Amino acid sequence: MATRKIPYLEWRDGRPRWNPGPKLRALGYRGQDLKDEHGDWMSRGAADDAAEAINAKIGGEAPAAAPAVPPAARTCKAMFDLLRASEKFQSKEGDNKKDTGRLAPRTASDYRAHLSFLEKWCGDLPPRAVTRAAVEDLYLQLVATKGKTQANSIMRTARIAWNFGDKIGWTAKNPFSKLEMLDPGGRLVLYTPEEIAALIASADYLGMQGMGDAIALGVLAGQREGDLLVLPEGDLASGYYVLKQKKRGAKAFVPLTAPLLQRLEASRKRKAMIWPGVHHTLEIICSRTGKAYHRGAKEFRRDFAKVRFVAAGGLYIIDALNGDTSGKRNYPFTPQPGVLGKWFSDLRDTAVTWLFMAGCTEAEIANITGHSLITVRAILDKHYFVRNEALAKSGGAKLDAYLAGHGIKWA
Q1: Global pTM?
Q2: What percent of the chain has pLDDT over 70?
Q3: Which domains does the chain have, with CATH numbers?
Q4: Whole-Å CA distances, 245 to 231, 252, 334, 347, 383
């Protein structure tokens, strides 16, 4: 028997949902899960019947005329409100972007911030009144005040908003489409081994050993912050952590190198000693309370900023502000001022370059960090760290050996 095709009925991993299109959403309709009176997901036949019943109430297709929002009220702010209320923005923890079509929580938060900025700029105007000339002028102002990266991000969000407006019939030509934006260039920021050691020692010094664990994992596992914060204490497979990344769904095989294994074993003993008989969290990385950091939590970033400040010699600054300029505080490590301005995310690029300097192939690096081969090559190409004297000498030595092996002499 042929499967019935019901408008707006979607199946996600065996779960039915009635999901209206942009025009219906502009009229105020919202998606809904299709469950029976017991709260269980409906079977295919029951879901088909339920979706058809919903469609019958609204006339099946979205009416082309008589929209709920009259043309006079179709402002940019109203369009942004509809976009923010759309299914795309209803992100949830654990969502896989490819499966649901929703934005990742962090991305949705960034988009909302961009829309709030755009709302101040053009909120009272109709979307059709925003011209290409005004957009180009705004972009130049943003580059001057916020920098290329932030300016480009806001323009991309605006382009998405006007594309959404086109779907619901509020806009015509997208003034943000094919906008020539300046290349911000890649961050040429990497940590040195001495800086990593200072960061970990700083975390331990402050009693924030969980942050030290995170830093060790960041540079030796090469994973994103969000994936590290939910990395479980679970079983290992042949000495590797096997994890599925949240952002791309890529698999990564994280080897337990000797320093990382030592750090993780010390972490387990530390937790058992501080919280005997209490299993506070399934995640490896935890705060000083023993509880896991939530993915993307501000608490984690605040703690990292504190650790970075102390690693840079921040306690000397505090002493000086208190009138002690002797610099005699007994630091358990050598302060590294160079860590200021560096981010936790820079640990991931550092991991790629360390793996490369250790002699790993691009394919080996990609399997450990979860990057695509193209991204690995881009990171290695953009970071000056891999174009250094040591590599040049190593290459020269290999060439000398080749020439000697073939008896090449020109004297």
Answers
A1: 0.59
A2: 80
A3: 1-68 (no CATH), 72-185 (1.10.150), 193-379 (1.10.443.10)
A4: 10, 7, 35, 16, 24
